[in-house]
Amino acid sequence: MIDLDIQKSHVIHQWKADSPLIACRISPRGDQCVSAGQDSMLQRWNIPSGEKVVLKGHESWSHALTYNPTGDLLVSGGCEGSLIWWSIGDAEPKAIRTIDAHQGWIRGVERSPDGQTLVSVGNDRTIRLWSTVTGEKLAEWSAHDRHIYSAAFHPDGVHLLTGDLMGKIHVWKLADHSLVRTLDGSTLYGPNPGQAAEFGGVRSLAISPNGAEVFAAGTHKGSNPFGAVHEPLLLRFQWSDGALTKSHVCDGIPGGLLFRTCPLNDATVVSVSGGSTGGILLFFNATQEKEIHRAMLPNIARDMDLHAATGLVATAHHDAHLRISGLFA
Amino acid sequence: MKIAKYACGSMDHIVNRRRFLSGVAGTVASTGAIVGGLGTLTQGIAAAEIQRKDMRVVVFNMHGGLSQLESWDPKPGTRTGGPFRAIPTSVSGIHISELLPMTAKQMHHLCLLRGVNTSEDDHGKGAYMMLTGRRQTPSADFPQIGSVAAKMLHDDQSGLPGHIVVTPGGGGGRGNEAAYLGPKFSSISLGGDKPPQNSNKPDALSDEAEKRRHDMRRKINEQFLNQRRTAITDAYTHSYEQALRLMERREVFDVSKEPDTAKQRYGNSDLGRQCLMARRLLESGVSFVQVTHSNYDTHNDNFNFHIEQVGEFDQAFATFVDDLAQRGMLEKTLVVVLSEFGRTPNINLYYGRDHWSKAWSIAMAGAGVQRGAAFGKTNDEGTEVIDGQCDHGDIFHTILRAVGVDSSQSLIVDGREVPIADPAAEPIWKILA
User: Are A174 and A155 contacting, i.e. CB atoms less than 8 angstroms apart?
Assistant: First the structure.
């Protein structure tokens, strides 16, 4: 493990794709990163050389990417509703399995702690579980009244969390798909009623490594969502009873939305804010309501991933760049 | 013909003699209109002839600017296309956005205009242009299509207003869209699926007392009008009489009378209820209904907003069109889906699309226009019109022509002829049936 120094975080690499980027994930070994672009292509980037391989398979954009634990397999979810398994560890990765998985957008694909199971969620309001190895559908159930925006497995391997447009965060027991409880993330649903349109949602869910805390990220104070005027918001819940313990807010970010949050350790998380104020890495700990540090990125960011062991953060940007930042001096 | 005698004595109000003698206005004379604003004097059109045709117009105003790329002119797989796919429709060769699956099944009733270029990216100005068919100028104001349709098509004896705007909430009162046609042709606004405000007689008021009150009002009015008659007083008088007739037909506005199956088909949404209301109004003799669907001004998060908004529109609109077709109403009802402009092909930093008037789309269906057609074409990325370009003026002419109104004619206003549609534009003849 590297000694992290978030105050010194800085961009180490930036590599340009052919279109604005919308998603990214770093491999478990930290030796590569996959991004997804508005041209519906995926790109595999070697870290640190930046060598790029383009993967063509989806008919539409991919918001959802996840590696298997060994990093030789990647599963991507597209807005056309398909899941694609990629032999991402190969020199020339191939699509080895394509499944017509959802009706409409897939917004989230995550792997279970043991890597054996995948969950996919999206606009059809259905949760589906898949075998990572065979692609077999293991279960599906209708879960939310509105589009499901995000999902996360709890480290205990027993529970699954899903979050929707309205800020409802359901906790499910994986064994029988029973609803254990619902966390109230309704402050993440933030439309301006005068604009007569829905806005907000649980854009990202994360669980602390020790399983004690749940983080739900998105936006609030949507005074003018049509004009990109809304502020970043991160909710911190206690896992044991589902109580909201902190609402992390930020000063001076009138146009911000947290697209993703990742735990740095049991108490500290890093989030990425996109929106009209720009791309910003925001760090929050358990004691302060506001961020403990912020690091501006060169361009508006739309997704982020953390490789905690190496202290690398990947960010996907509108200017078509994938940027790799180091959280160290 | 009875010509109103106004207090101001202005010749401005007097019917253009040449046009009157042309034989066209003679038909108007036979209608025996007695009260009203300038509208009853701005003659020149064979209104009674048109009224017999029983034509209707309904406009869906997609407030804020519907994205043509997420509706009528998708460009999947291109730099500008966004994440949505195109789907086939009931008409071979015509594809629309996958956000409109139910509407796709009604494509054989629709006529798409994919070459709209209005060159105006301001909300207010764009809306004015689309609804009046003209650019806004400081020197003149023009009536909106609803007011023109009410004047040209409406049978005043129906007991209902000729021009109604159905909004998601609020409602009440009259609009101010009629310009020189006079307030008689301005809209009455309805909030959702509710009857006009204050349109029920108070329980404490007996029928007899109600009658006595109105008799007295009419008597006093008559005395006053003999000395001080103006277009405005006529409009007031008309409003009272119209309100009375509207109260008698209050059940028309009661969407709750519709069977549950109909409500479910239209969808559990404000727009679904508005569409059901619109159908009831058209059935009952209202000549023009505008349904507002809000909001599409998606500079930010365009795709999430359009999933929600267009999804709601799809069910309500497709059901509305199908319902009109099933009831045989589509033959005499022109349906128009318009906005103040479209949205940029370019996708901005915030997954948004901005204002774009150079190459966008509207849709029509029903009376007087071709069915199952797509007219006009944009280039591969939707940035320019490359075939079949038209603008707000052409569309205004086309709407009128489609329902049997000669859009090349003029009204006489303040002693001068005012063309009812911009003479620099003309109907899109290729789409007229």
Answer: no
